[in-house]
Specification:
single chain, alpha+beta, L-fuculose-1-phosphate Aldolase, 6 helices, about 15% strand, globular
């Protein structure tokens, strides 16, 4: 039996998809995950329970959306994923249907600056205008909200986060859910205090050097 192409990437897609379920960022088969390797993208298939997925079940598509390997059809949200790769230089994409972020999208046009962690997204996270799932219109709306950002919220729908790696994109999805829950919790009791744009910009500069220094 021949080796499965991009097995490591495809297994990582499965792992993150299952984590979305365990972390309660999706219900059932909602949401989707992808990672780019050169000119190919490994992406979750449409309508398959994540705990049933095997390596070969993860479709490989090219940047035009053509399936080059795999028997299962890719997610219906493939246009969003490909747009994130071709227009925003993403290395990986995570799309969730997380509760708190979707709830905030019904009330706001962006995530209020309640915490400096928003600096990791490049500034205020925007809420994209609503469009029907799986359509080019949704991909276009997402792209507009994602400009100069590492994440956005889709109104009445969910979130999209990107990163150089799938782990980074997923951590941003989790963090975005927490940021939305923080604002929603505080807003129940009053008018939350917000950070200034200048402070977010300052924090973004600090984030650029955050972490361990290579030896």
């Amino acid at each position: 039996m021949s080796a499965v192409r991009l097995a490591e990437e495809r297994d990582e897609v499965i792992d993150i998809a299952r984590r979305m379920t365990s972390d309660r960022l999706v219900v059932g088969t909602s949401g989707n995950v992808s990672v780019r390797a050169g000119d190919l993208v490994a992406v979750t298939p449409s309508g398959v329970e994540y705990d049933q997925l095997r390596t070969a079940d993860i479709p490989l598509v090219d940047l035009s959306g053509e399936v080059v390997e795999g028997e299962l059809a890719p997610t219906s949200e493939l246009p969003m994923h490909l747009t994130a790769y071709t227009e925003h230089g993403a290395g990986a994409v995570v799309h969730t249907h997380s509760l708190q972020a979707t709830a905030l999208s019904l009330l706001r046009d962006e995530v209020p600056a309640v915490h400096y962690q928003l600096a990791d997204y490049g500034g205020a996270v925007r809420v994209a205008d609503y469009a029907t799932f799986g359509t080019p219109a949704l991909a276009k709306s997402m792209s507009k909200a994602l400009r100069d950002r590492n994440g956005c919220i889709l109104r009445n729908h969910g979130t999209v986060t990107i990163g150089g790696t799938l782990t980074k994109a997923y951590n941003r999805a989790r963090q975005l859910e927490w940021l939305c829950e923080l604002w929603l919790t505080a807003a129940k009791l009053g008018d939350p205090a917000l950070l200034s744009d200048a402070e977010l910009e300052h924090c973004a500069t600090l984030f650029a050097g955050y972490g361990q220094t290579p030896r």
